[in-house]
Amino acid sequence: MFQPDLEKMPRPELEALQTKRLKRMVERIYSLVPFYRRKLDAAGIKPQDILGMEDLLKLPFTRKSDLREQYPFRMFAVEQEEVARIHGSSGTSGKPTVVGYTRKDIQRWAELCARSIVMAGGRPGDVFHNAYGYGLFTGGLGLHYGAERLGATVVPVSGGNRSRQVTLIQDFLPRGIGGTPSFILSLAEMMEDMGLKPWTTSLEYGIFGAEPWSEEMRQTLEEKWGIDALDIYGLSEVIGPGVAMECREAKDGLHIAEDHFLPEVIHPQTGEPLPDGEYGELVFTSLTKEALPILRYRTGDITALHREVCRCGRTHTRMSRIKGRIDDMLIIRGVNVFPSELEAVLLNFEELAPHYQLVVTREKSIDQLTLEVEVSEAWFRSIESSFGQGNERVVQLCKRLQSVVKDTLYVTTKVILKEPKSLPRSEGKAVRVIDQR
Ligand code: DLL
C-alpha cells in the first residue's frame, strides 16, 4: 500500500476526518466562491449549519452546466496567481469545462495516482508506459506525476502512433502500462499484425480507464497481454484519474479515495439518496481541493456503492464498475441500454472481435439500433472467399447475435458483421455510439 495509514483508516476515524474536512470546505467556498455563496444563501444554509455528515444532504448539487456558466475561472476559490495548472474536458458543446489546481492540489493528485499504481501492483523502480493523452485531458499528466511520485521511470508516450509504442514497449521493458482500454486493445492488435506476441512482453499490469469497459473486456485484455488489467476512474471536475481504483487482490469494485472525496449515489431523476448496492448517479464532494472545490457534483456516471471492508484490507468504500453515463444510455423503444452491456454480450462470441459501434437512427419515428461488429480474423479466414451479408454462415451468426441481445438486454437490434479492421480504431476514448437521429 502506498499510504496504509490513510487507505486502511478505521471507519470511525475516517468519518471524523471527513466531517472535519467537509465543514472546512463549506466555510471556504462560502467565503471565497460567489457562485456557492449565492447557492447556499438561496437554500437558506450557513456554513455553521453543517455539523455532521448527515447535513451533506442539505447542500445543493453542482452540475456540469454550472461549470460551463462560470467559464472559465469563476468557480475557482483561489487567485489566479495561485493556480499552478489548468486542465479541462472537451464536452460535446464547443467550450471545454475548465478545472484548476494549486501546487498542493497537484501534489495530492500525484499521491492519489501513485496510490492507484500501487493498487495495480506497481512499485518504485518500475518502468511505466503512459499511453494516456497528454494535454488538457487529465489522463496523461495525472498518471505521469503519479508514477514519478511513486519512484517509477515514466515513458510519456501519450496516445497514438501505435507502431512506435510497440517498439518502445519492446525496448524499454515496462512493468506497467496505462491507457484507455480501447486503445490498449488496438495496440495488442498492432503487435499481432507485426507477427509479435503481446503476452510475451515485460508488462505485468495495466491501469485502464477514462471510458466504460466490461468485465469481458478485462478478460480479453488480460489474456492478450498476459497482465492484470485494473480499472481506474476519475473525472476532471473532481481531480482527474485516481478518484477511485481497483485493487489487484480483489478486482471487485474501485476503492474511492474517501479521505479526499465524499461519494453518494442518488436517483438521477429525484435526486434522493439510494441505498448501498443500488445503481444510480454518482455524486462527489471534494474535501481537500484548493483551487476548484466542488460540492455534490453530479457526475452523470451510473454505479453502486459497497461499504464492506475489502479483502485487500482497505477500508475505503468501493464503487461498481461504471455502467455508463446517463447521457450515453440509449433508450430504444422504451428499453434502456448501455453500450458496455452490449460489449459484454458480444465478447462471448468467439466468431467476433471486440471492435464494435452502435448506430442509432430514426425510421418513421421509431428508433432503430444497428450493431456493427467486426468478425474475428480466424472466423473471417474460414469463410473469406464468400464473406458478405448473403452468406449463410453470416446470416446465422447475425441471427444468433440478435437473439442473444434480445434475450439479455430486451432490445431488438439490426446486426451488421464487418470485416476485420474495418471499424475505426480508438486513439483515446472510444466512440461507441453514432447517433444519427
Ligand atoms: O477521463 C479522467 C481519467 C483519465 C480517468 C485516465 C481514468 C484514467 P474526463 O475526461 O473528465 O476525465 O472524463 C470523465 O470519463 O465522468 C466517466 O464518464 C468516464 N470515465 C472515466 N473513468 C472511467 C472508468 C477522465 N474507469 C468521464 N470507467 C467520467 C468508465 C470512466 N467511465
Automatic annotation (TrEMBL):
InterPro entries: Adenylate-forming_Reductase, AMP-bd_C_sf, AMP-dep_Lig_C, AMP-dep_synth/lig_dom, ANL_N_sf, PA_CoA_ligase. The keyword Ligase applies. Its EC number is 6.2.1.30. The keyword Ligase applies. Pfam families: AMP-binding, AMP-binding_C_2. Transmembrane segments: none annotated. Pathway: Aromatic compound metabolism; phenylacetate degradation. Keywords: Ligase, Nucleotide-binding. It catalyses: 2-phenylacetate + ATP + CoA = phenylacetyl-CoA + AMP + diphosphate. Residues 76-284 form the AMP-dependent synthetase/ligase domain. GO terms for molecular function: nucleotide binding; phenylacetate-CoA ligase activity. One of its GO terms (biological process) is phenylacetate catabolic process. It is an enzyme of class 6 (ligase). Residues 334-437 form the AMP-dependent ligase C-terminal domain. Monomer. Catalyzes the activation of phenylacetic acid (PA) to phenylacetyl-CoA (PA-CoA). PANTHER family: PHENYLACETATE-COENZYME A LIGASE. Belongs to the phenylacetyl-CoA ligase family. This is Phenylacetate-coenzyme A ligase. It comes from Melghirimyces algeriensis.
